[in-house]
Amino acid sequence: MSADLVALLYLLAAVLFILALRGLSNPETSRRGNLFGMVGMAIAIVTTLASHPPEGAGAWALVIVGIAIGGTVGAVIARRVPDDGHAGARRGIPFARRNGGSAGGGCRTLRAGGLRHRG
User: Fold this and answer.
1) How far is Cα 16 from Cα 18, in angstroms, rounded to an integer?
2) Cα 65 from Cα 42, distance rounded (Å)
3) Cα separation of 82 and 64, whole Å?
4) Burial class of 51 by CB neighbour count within 10 A (0 to 12, 13 to 18, 19+)
5) Nearest 10 degrees: Cα torsion 39, 44, 45, 47
6) Mean pLDDT, contiguous 10-residue spans, the chain (119 residues)
7) Which terminus of the chain has fewer Cβ atoms in its 10 Å neighbourhood, N or C?
8) What angle do CA 23, 87, 34 make, to 5 degrees?
9) 92 touches 34 (CB < 8 A)
10) C-alpha to C-alpha distances, 86 to 38, 46, 94, nearest whole angstrom
């Protein structure tokens, strides 16, 4: 897969994530926002696996197990949210809290470890 195509697909995924956040801010557009987020994540995962495929059966097994665990946890959490017409917006709330904390912790870990982006 060419580097230009990879960059374009990641850009598309980023735009879809931004549209997802925008859609989740309003109960009337929350379903569309969730759809944008799911499509963006699927594009990002497929692009990553296609551009940097895991080497060996064991690595692929870990990827599949990780996706299965994440999907199961997400489905369980989503089922616990009551469906009262605003469920699309409310289903994103538990994930936003967890992901924001994880992202912040990850950034602190990278800074503490001395890793830097090489442009």
Assistant:
1) 5
2) 16
3) 29
4) middle
5) 120
6) 94 96 88 92 94 93 94 88 60 53 42 46
7) C
8) 35
9) yes
10) 18, 30, 14
